[in-house]
């Protein structure tokens, strides 16, 4: 008979570590700060701010929004206006999609271009993944490159930045080491989109940040929008709120930046939305499971939530961003519905 070890199993050790981390996190959560929507501080047009006040989700905080109809932009907010800066989270992915569309239009890339044609990943399975698969979340790559328990708990309870130390090479290495599970089925992947942005930039011989500035931000006059790379924010940069009411760290990113590092204002985002209405939305990345013809993408970081929704046929759009963890997807759709009436 095999001798039974007196050492605790790896599972027991992992459970013990997790329990300790949860206990520490719980101590931080004690004494949560209440979050109240700033509905007594409307800004801009009542046509927008009234909708925000009436339909904002519980625990929303400061809100900034706009609607577009017939090329006219209407701004509104609660405790914030169109010039206030917010993290837009995964709406950044639509900018990456725009860069991909530009490269396709210029003949530099195609949707069938594979990762391995642009970046050397050896004989890794990810080398055969196409840019279309990355852009539509069907590559089989996992949601995150690093999803350790300590990192998750730090983000949830302490407001730490889960992407702070991930480099471009880290993204490539994580993708190269990953198993492609359920390839062909849609499974949302931040890692896949970070890789997509790095592949596009590599194909153009520049950095993702420079490409974003050269091809979108500067041409559209989005002068108050920037990619929050490491060191780009300071103590004066706006912070969002965790669910417990405490401030979250800014989500600065390096390797993962193409998946969610943009900070912007509603004024600048209205320029981007009008550009999309004028030139068309790429046939990838955007979600179209809402009413026919409507495309949308939301975003979320440690302390911000956002929603951009467009109806190209009607020539209308709506955008809303909130500096707490309360989701604003439905609120963005409500703003569009009111605009289309």
UniProtKB/TrEMBL annotation:
Q: Name one Pfam family in it.
A: Beta-lactamase
Which part of the chain is the Beta-lactamase-related domain? 79-321
SUPFAM superfamilies, per the entry: beta-lactamase/transpeptidase-like (SSF56601)
Q: Does the keyword Signal apply?
A: yes
Give the InterPro entries listed for this entry.
Answer: AmpC-like, Beta-lactam-related, Beta-lactam/transpept-like
Q: Which region is the signal sequence? A: 1-26
Per UniProt, which keywords does this protein have?
Signal
Q: Which domain of life is it from?
A: Bacteria
Question: Could you identify this protein by its name?
Answer: Beta-lactamase
Source organism of this protein record: Corynebacterium doosanense CAU 212 = DSM 45436
Its organism's taxonomic lineage begins at: Bacteria, Bacillati, Actinomycetota, Actinomycetes, Mycobacteriales
């Amino acid at each position: 008979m095999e001798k039974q070890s007196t050492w605790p199993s790896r599972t027991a050790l992992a459970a013990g570590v997790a329990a300790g981390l949860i206990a520490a996190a719980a101590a931080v959560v004690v004494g949560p700060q209440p979050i109240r929507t700033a509905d007594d501080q409307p800004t801009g047009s009542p046509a927008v701010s009234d909708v925000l006040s009436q339909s904002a989700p519980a625990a929303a905080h400061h809100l900034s929004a706009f609607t577009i109809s017939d090329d006219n932009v209407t701004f509104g907010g609660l405790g914030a206006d169109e010039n206030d800066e917010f993290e837009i989270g995964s709406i950044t992915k639509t900018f990456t999609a725009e860069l991909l569309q530009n490269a396709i239009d210029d003949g530099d890339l195609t949707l069938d271009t594979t990762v391995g044609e642009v970046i050397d990943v050896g004989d890794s399975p990810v080398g055969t993944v196409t840019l279309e698969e990355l852009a539509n979340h069907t590559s089989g790559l996992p949601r995150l490159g690093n999803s350790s328990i300590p990192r998750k708990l730090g983000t949830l309870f302490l407001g730490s930045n889960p992407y702070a130390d991930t480099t471009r090479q880290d993204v490539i290495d994580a993708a190269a080491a990953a198993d492609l599970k359920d390839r062909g089925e849609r499974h949302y992947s931040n890692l896949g989109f970070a890789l997509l942005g790095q592949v596009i930039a590599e194909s153009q011989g520049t950095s993702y940040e420079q490409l974003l500035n050269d091809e979108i931000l500067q041409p559209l006059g989005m002068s108050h929008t920037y990619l929050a790379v490491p060191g780009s924010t300071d103590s004066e940069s706006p912070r969002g709120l965790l669910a417990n009411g405490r401030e979250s760290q800014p989500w600065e990113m390096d390797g993962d930046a193409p998946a969610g590092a943009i900070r912007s204002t509603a004024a600048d985002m209205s320029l981007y939305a009008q550009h999309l209405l004028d030139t068309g939305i790429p046939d990838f990345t955007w979600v179209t499971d809402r009413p026919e013809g409507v495309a949308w993408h939301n975003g979320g970081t440690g302390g911000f939530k956002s929603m951009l929704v467009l109806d190209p046929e009607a020539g209308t759009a709506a955008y809303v961003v909130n500096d707490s963890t309360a989701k604003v997807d439905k609120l963005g759709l409500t703003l569009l519905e009111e605009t289309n009436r």
